[in-house]
Design brief:
By secondary structure, this protein is α/β, with parallel strands linked by helices. It contains five helices and six strands, in the order αβαβαβαβαββ.
Length: 171
């Protein structure tokens, strides 16, 4: 976990040194493990709550400025420990009826247009995380197909000039 924090902080500190304008850093995760209590909008399980706390610890020294989640409880519940630790409000970007690719494009456009220079945590879903990483970086990452895979984390730097940088890790 310590190595992951160092990698994320290196992306963030590298982004603040640019002379051509502020870079944007986006940390992207899938929501944590969920209960089977509601087929449409389940809560996090105890394991998921522990993972959400772990995410907050990983990001404790990351200078987050914004947290974006979908309209589903599991994304907000995954983000809550991080929100509390950084004293940030949450911004909900509803998926609505969009396909994963359309949602990812809409979210990527919003970040590029309205949030340049920020450090953002995005909590999303198994189908939207890979599509969102592709929309931001042009890099195809493996799909999240395993129902038990909740530990991927992507750290993306969108420089004011040049190509995006991507780090894939687990937490």
């Amino acid at each position: 976990m310590r190595i992951l924090l160092v990698l994320i902080l290196s992306l963030v500190s590298g982004s603040t040194a640019g002379l051509m304008g502020a870079d944007t850093v986006v940390v992207v995760v899938r929501h944590a493990e969920k209960e089977a209590d509601d087929p449409k909008d389940p809560n996090l399980s105890l394991t998921g709550q522990a993972r959400a706390t772990s995410l907050a610890k990983v990001l404790a020294d990351c200078p987050l400025t914004r947290v974006l989640v979908s309209e589903y409880r599991r994304t907000l519940q995954t983000a809550e420990p991080t929100l509390r630790a950084h004293n940030l409000p949450v911004t909900t970007i509803p998926i609505r009826q969009d396909r994963a690719e359309a949602y990812a494009q809409r979210l990527a456009s919003l970040i590029k247009r309205d949030h340049q220079g920020e450090v953002i945590l995005v909590v999303s879903h198994s189908n939207t995380v890979p599509a969102f990483v592709l929309a931001l970086t042009g890099v195809q990452v493996p799909p999240i197909v395993d129902a038990s895979e909740f530990n991927r984390l992507y750290a993306i730097t969108l420089p004011a000039q040049g190509r995006p940088r991507l780090i894939a890790a687990s937490y």
